[in-house]
Design goal:
Elements (H helix, E strand, L loop, with lengths): L1 E7 L8 E7 L2 E7 L12 H4 L1 H6 L8 E3 L5 E3 L2 H19 L4 E5 L8 H12 L4 E3 L6 H10 L1 E2 L11 E5 L3 H4 L10 H11 L2 E5 L12 E3 L6 H14 L5 H7 E2 L1 H7 L5 H8 L3 H13 L3 E5 L1 H5 L3 H14 L26 E2 L5 E6 L6 E3 L8 H6 L8 E5 L3 H4 L3 H10 L2 E5 L12 E3 L9 E2 L1 H5 L13 E2 L1 E2 L14 H12 L4 E3 L14 E3 L8 H8 L7 H4 L6 E2 L19 E2 L3 H12 L10 E6 L23 E4 L1 H6 L7 E5 L4 E8 L7 E5 L40 E7 L2 H7 L1
Parallel strand pairs: 6-7, 6-17, 9-10, 9-13, 10-11, 12-26, 17-18, 18-19, 27-31, 28-30
Antiparallel strand pairs: 1-2, 2-3, 4-5, 4-19, 8-14, 15-16, 20-22, 21-25, 23-24, 27-32, 28-31, 29-30, 29-32
Helix pairs in contact: 3-19, 4-19, 5-14, 8-11, 8-12, 8-14, 11-12
Length: 734
């Protein structure tokens, strides 16, 4: 029997609306839904390979427990939960609740697991919650805390004349900073037909940069210099919105003085760009009626990412690139209840220095969360406060965290490591217990997570009131012993005799948003995932039951459109474009000398492969057929200078470590720049294949050259050298 059903893909955070084909109850194909008004038939290679994940050899179907000899035995979920609970209780009794930490990766940050993992941590009294955000885009949230935000929101690209994108390639990543969730290439094509002027700042001529009106192909790591130069031009030429700055911003004089050294000639020399193109970019952005400036992972992993994000906010505020009173609210919310949009400021707040203080490098909790890059040190450092147990959900620290060798030592040192993942990742191979979760299609899903991304940053999430719900479409495979990822924390709490309480709505609240409802979870009679979703969407503008009536999803327009309201009476709060921490950082940048090293003459940046999401997908043969070994991309000019050909074995070396890789070609790279793929090379255990052991984070140290505010180490714009490998290694890759 054949049938086709609507579904939500969960291969990444995009949440594409798709169609799935079943034959005799088995998933055989996933494809785009051309009738979907948001995604318009789009799917990625990862999504289309979901059938291989569900039924392939890589999938775990039962919990695993590590034995004394290192092998894994299958155990029942009851045995696993009892063993984990007993060990955790012993650790907490002996070392306190903060000896237990939780790490959530990109595959584990979704509803309702967020609510239950947070509730479990609160119940045991631990403050040690870490996630991938603090090694991905921490500067975004810290800069926003220093600057403040605009409650009216920002314009979307379809109503804008220009757009500025820095260190992001949304045509590939599909996440934020340019077009809304959906089919990025399709949306961008429409905007170019309309006449949008796109400005891209990136060392690589990315798929997005190829479409740009102005592309500033800068030297890696000089983003703050270029952005400061744009700010200076806009101020000097009086292109800024004087009325908006006067009414809503403090710090103009401090900002003006701090950017004074960044004249076009200075910026051109430091960043290796054309001065006239810098002027063109600044004038194009400032002179437009509507637009916005956004950054991505690239500038956050590079040096001074917090400053780069802050300068982007300054550009938006200087030019008044926000919605104003009377402007249409594009998305009033569907499954997430929202307060009214207002033409007023949410003032700056704490950026760091609150919450628990770590023992290493004086780090604390921050607006971007606890600093994940320090977690390995907190595990290794003996004494009071040492982390001794780690639950890793939907993440792969051995691939994602900087300084792989230190991470490996740390994971080995733990008294207890539990990994929740559908596959035996490199991290899972070191675990004491591996918990096999249900995957997409085996659980009810909704678009609440994708909708909630709009609360993180401008132009994330949906720009229209879109929502979709998908019930469980298939049963778990026969003979499996699986649980929902949120159910792990519920069952663990039962074993530990803990009382959980969860809240409705989104984890992030803006000023004026309705408060969450909190409820004590019934610890005797388990809820279903459906019941949990119904509670979380309590008070939604559109009930989940209404969304469920439309299997393919729907744009739920309001009966009466919403508009940005005026500021509340007596509200005079202001944005800060002259924060003294950021101004001191700018002064330091102005005094820095360009870094050149004959020992490490190249600069390595990170990039994506369109068929992978970090390390996810690297175990599927069809996803890695073109790159069986770790690729390092170079311009043809650099290949020639090194007497290399595409496919040659090389050694890529930083001052911290070296990895084996293969040379590949990307003429979009600026000469002198090489690109490697973050998290690629998930084969650490294959010792008989030395060339296949490489991945980018082996080259990175998590100490030294850290961001002054979030503490993230340099993960891009890294100084490296390239050496042609010996004949034996060349034979190994062939």
């Amino acid at each position: 029997m054949r049938e086709t059903k609507h579904a939500i893909c969960s291969s990444c955070g995009q949440g594409c609306g798709v169609l799935v084909n079943f034959e005799d109850g088995e998933l055989v194909k996933l494809r785009g839904d051309k009738e979907n008004p948001v995604y318009r038939g789009y799917t990625c290679a990862m999504g289309r390979r979901m059938p291989l994940v569900r039924s392939g050899d890589i999938r775990l179907l039962n919990p695993k427990k590590r034995q004394g000899d290192g092998r894994f035995d299958t155990v029942s979920s009851e045995q696993a939960m009892a063993g984990i609970a007993d060990k955790l209780q012993d650790i907490i009794a002996g070392h306190g609740p903060n000896s237990v930490a939780l790490y959530q990766g990109i595959g584990g940050i979704k509803t309702p697991v967020n609510q239950f993992s947070g509730a479990w941590l609160r119940a045991i009294g631990s403050q040690m919650r870490f996630d991938s955000g603090s090694i991905d885009q921490p500067g975004k949230f810290i800069a926003s805390a220093l600057h403040g935000s605009w409650l009216g929101g920002a314009p979307i690209i379809s109503e804008s004349d220009t757009w500025l994108v820095v260190g992001s390639n949304p045509v590939h990543s599909r996440l934020g900073s340019l077009t809304p969730h959906g089919n990025t290439a399709w949306y961008l094509k429409q905007e170019f037909r309309r006449g949008i002027k796109l400005i891209v700042i990136d060392p690589r001529k990315t798929e997005t940069a190829k479409k740009a009106t102005v592309h500033l192909q800068l030297r890696p790591g000089t983003d703050p210099t270029v952005l400061a130069g744009m700010v200076r031009i806009i101020i000097e030429e009086k292109l800024y919105d004087n009325t908006f700055v006067r009414d809503f911003a403090d710090g103009f004089t401090a900002l003006k003085q701090s950017v004074e050294p960044f004249n076009p000639e200075f910026v051109a020399q430091v960043a290796d760009i054309e001065a006239n193109k810098l002027v063109e970019a600044a004038q194009t952005f400032a002179s437009s009626n509507k637009g916005h400036a956004c950054g991505g992972t690239g500038i956050n992993m590079a040096p001074r990412g917090t400053l780069s994000e802050y300068l982007l906010l300054c550009l938006n505020t200087l030019c008044g690139k926000y919605k104003r009173e009377g402007d249409r609210v594009n998305n009033p919310g569907v499954l997430i209840p929202k307060g009214p949009a207002r033409a007023q400021v949410v003032p700056p707040g704490p950026a760091w220095g609150f919450g628990p203080k770590l023992r290493v490098r004086g780090l604390t909790n921050t607006a971007s969360g606890m600093p994940t890059h320090a977690l390995a040190d907190e595990i290794l450092l003996e004494g009071k406060g040492q982390i001794r147990a780690l639950i890793c959900m939907g993440g792969n620290p051995l691939m994602a965290w900087p300084d792989t060798e230190k991470t490996q030592r740390a994971l080995k040192k733990l008294d207890l490591l539990v990994v929740i993942d559908y596959r035996m990742t490199e991290c899972a191979k070191m675990a004491d217990y591996v918990i096999a979760p249900r995957t997409a299609l085996e659980e009810p899903l909704s678009t609440i997570d994708s909708e909630g991304l709009a609360l993180y940053a401008s132009n994330w999430g949906y720009c229209v009131p879109w929502a979709q719900y998908s019930p469980a479409l298939t049963q778990p495979p026969a003979g499996s012993d699986l649980m929902a990822d949120w159910e792990f924390f519920y069952r663990l709490s039962q074993q530990m005799k803990l009382q959980l309480s969860i809240g409705s709505g989104a984890a992030i609240k803006r000023a004026g948003d309705p408060p969450s409802r909190r409820v004590k979870v019934d610890m005797q009679n388990p809820m279903s995932t459906q019941e949990v979703l119904e509670f979380i969407t309590t008070d939604a503008r559109v009930p989940l039951s209404e969304v469920a009536k439309y299997p393919g999803g729907r744009v739920f327009e309001e009966d009466e459109p919403s508009y940005v309201l005026g500021a509340e009476d007596g509200d005079h709060r202001r944005l800060n474009i002259g924060d003294h921490h950021m101004m001191e950082e700018l002064q330091a940048v102005a005094c820095e000398q360009p870094q050149h090293s004959s020992d490490y003459p190249y600069r390595m940046i990170t990039r994506r492969l369109i068929h992978l999401m970090n390390s996810q997908g690297s175990e599927i043969a069809r996803s890695t057929d073109h790159w069986r070994n770790t690729p390092v991309f170079m311009n043809q000019e650099d290949l020639n200078a090194l007497e290399l050909s595409r496919g040659d074995a090389i050694t890529l070396e930083s001052s911290h470590n070296s990895i084996a890789a293969i040379a590949d070609l990307d003429n979009g790279l600026k000469p002198g720049v090489v690109a490697a793929v973050h998290c690629y090379g998930d084969r650490l255990a294959e010792k008989e294949k030395p060339v296949a052991l490489a991945h980018l984070n082996m080259l990175l140290s998590n100490e030294g050259d850290n961001d002054n505010f979030c503490g993230i180490p340099r993960m891009s714009a890294v100084a490296v050298r390239i050496v042609k490998a010996c004949h034996r290694d060349q034979e190994a890759i062939e």
